[in-house]
Amino acid sequence: MLSTDIGGLVRTLLHAPRSRRRSIAAVTLGALALIGSLLVATPASALNDTGTGGVFVPTTGRILDTKNNIGGYSTPMPAKTWRTVQVAGLAGLPDDGSVGAVSVVAMVADITTAGQLFGRPDADTKYTLMGIYGGEQQQNTSFSSVLAVGADGTIQVYAETSARLILDVQGYYTANTDGTAPGGFVPLNGKRVADTRSGTGLPQQQLTTGKSAVLQVTGTAGVPADASAVIVNLVAINSTSNVGFLTPYPTGAARPANSFNYAGGTTTTMQAQVQLSADGKITVYNANSTTDLAIDVQGYFTATGGSGAVFTPGSGRIFDTRATGNTILAGNETRAIDVAGQAGVPVMGSGINSVVLTLTANAANGSGWGRVWANGTSEPDTASLRYDNGTVRSNTITVPVGANGKINLHNIGNGATNFIIDVQGWYANPSAPSVVCPQPYSSDAVIITPDSTAVECTISASPATTSGERLVYAVDSEDVTQVDLSQSASITTTVAVELSRGTHSITAYRAYANGDGADETDYTFTVGDWSASALQGTPSADEVTDELPYLGVSLSEEYNFPTDATFAFTVSTDSAGAAVVWESGEQADQIAQTPGLPEGAYFWHAVVRGSNAQGATTTLTTPTFSFSTSAQAAGEDASGTAAADAGTYTADSPVESDPEDTAAPQPAMSTMRTTRYDPVPACSATADPNHKVDDSFPRRHWSGVVSGGHADLVCGTPGTRGMRHIWRPYPGHMDDWIRIANKYPMGLKPEELMVGALTTTYASPTNVSYRSENDSYTYLGILEIKDRKGHVVRIYTVNTAVGNGNWKVITAFPSNGRKP
To answer: Residue 249 is inside which H or E element, if any?
Structure first.
């Protein structure tokens, strides 16, 4: 940051001394030891991200204090040495691999010489400038920083000089982009919302030690009532000689240990990420000094499940007035600076909307301010950075990018000042891939008679926002194609859809290097009419069930039942349906459980009603199916088991590996969401109301196979993943699970049996195999059916296929039934 081309002795006060009567320590700026790669701008040719990130989740806690043995160290940071700090599992951060980046407040104390603090996720990743520290002994320096977290849940920090280092967590960014946590980021162009000098937003009085200020944030500066957190710049305008500190936190919550130290006798700017209270307020606590306080809002995070941009941590230098071809920023000069496409930042059109920067002022010609905002917009009334004559100051800022990819930097002062801008990361909200098919094959269309045997459709995707980003797509749940996204332009590809009868889907989404994915598009159209498809049923042909059987209806072709479909089941003791013993009445679920049928032979049928392709109501009746009930439903396998004494099941026995499979590399599976849902069994009552996630299955760490995380069953997704492909309504695996639940008197619904078996299979996979030809994974587990005495009466193998990189659970079924 501080180049060796500046020689001589220059007074360096990143924070003013505790007492103005004490001598000012002078340091040689040119003697500061720097890491070489930060001396030059990062090339613009490739993205320069340092890890994965996602949506922001606020949490607080101290993870490092090198003086008090917090974080595993009880000695000062050694000069020019990396130290590893545990992050995951501490201060409210989960330890399941879901943390992609962490937002910290760094406080450097016991400083003898000015220096720079750097951070990185691991030794194999680029480092990021966190901030500049310096001043006389015990002059503390605080600044925010966002760092990628390593795969082992740690970060690494490096100080140029020996000093005490404290790291307080402000929150973390998820390792994926599912958007289900608070929250996506919405940048604002900066607005001052509080100033104790004028009485704006806060009482017109200074904060003395031990006093707090309460600020209403929502409803001001464009922050909505449902915002979950904000990014603010705290400006301590100090009129005393004592060093103090500020602690911002949600009003009404317990005050955390987090501290932003400000200098005595001068003005200090410090960015903070702060959770909001339920009524949209923050409290700022002051200690050890008296100060005026101004607060500028830089943006906010949406509520749970809301929209907004996701964060990617990065590194690189985008601007340095000292670099060849640049000139020092004159007093009161404003300069437009290219950001998008520079130093590894994504290009415009990718979805990038704001950047997180370390802004540094190296002042030798007077005091002043630095102000940064989006080019092409009005200059705000905010302060990004305060600098004093003869000092080097830095502050983390979050600023939107103008439509042309530029930001403005205004040097508000009379003297020429050198400014340096480094990247900590960026927020982007890339659009989902677009899918376009020619008319009449538009999304949701129904075409009774196609005019050809196939149609060619186009998939387009905007430029990448992270390195290694891909477009992933599939047609009708078949072979998955992955294409690297361009880092400089949109890409377009074509796919062919065979126009056979049924519902056709084109699913496309963006996949990231770590396997996470988001921004999905599901495009469906239907050829023919569902009402022309034959109806099938389970049980169907003289099957033996227990005395509480389930009945299910499905279509023989790959159609979805219409959303307004109803199902009415009738059970009788004669094939003509005259001797009715039970009727369900009309219901929305295509599965029904009878209230109890004594041992005997039965017949059943169902009447299905729903809108056809022309919008008219169609009524279809299934064939008549037969079954018989028995307290000994499982036959000789369940000898001694009474219907009243329900058995149990387990799903934890080992299975043998398929010799055709190979050892699996790390799978690229992630939690995915989509915005379109179709009603399917077991979803409407239990699904999350916002995201339709019915169940989440934890995957146990398995060396060389999985590294933790979850796979979700997403109810009713029309694409190639989710409950619909585990519990398939049309010929598939719904029947498999119904038949097991009907045969063995466990007292479990078919979907409960399925979910329980899959949960155990995922959590403790006894065998996970990989097939390279289609990049798919198969989890295998044993489903053991036991009688009331605990004797195993039947064994099934649970097959759970998770295919093609990010693609979700495609199908799961029990098979290979055998007696032990």
So the answer is: strand 244-250
Q: What is the pLDDT of residues 796-817, one digit of tens each?
A: 888 877 654 444 555 778 876 5
Phi first, then psi: give them for residue 167, nearest 5 degrees: -120, 120
Helix, strand, or coil (residue 661): coil
**pLDDT confidence of residue 505:** 84
Which burial class, exposed, middle or buried, applies to 82 when counting CB atoms under 10 A from its CB (0-12, 13-18, 19+)? Answer: middle
| Cα–Cα distance measured from residue 667 to residue 71, given in angstroms and rounded to the nearest whole number | 31
pLDDT for the residue numbered 705:
52
Residue 672 has which token pair?
């995915």
Angle of helix 734-743 relative to helix 750-763, nearest 10 degrees, comes to 110
* Residues 555 and 535: beta-carbon distance below 8 Å: yes
Q: Are 86 and 72 in contact (CB under 8 A)?
A: yes
Using an 8 Å Cβ cutoff, are 782 and 653 in contact?
Answer: yes
Residue 790 has a pLDDT of 76
Amino acid at 52: T
Q: Which residues are paired to 461 by β-bridges?
A: 491
Which residues of the chain register pLDDT less than 50? Answer: 1-44, 135-137, 179-180, 636-645, 659-682, 684-687, 689-691, 707, 717-721, 804-807, 818-820
d(CA 630, CA 15): 84
Return the SS3 of 614.
Answer: coil
* Partner residues linked to 605 by β-bridges: 570
Angle at 106 between CA 23 and CA 26, to 5 degrees: 20
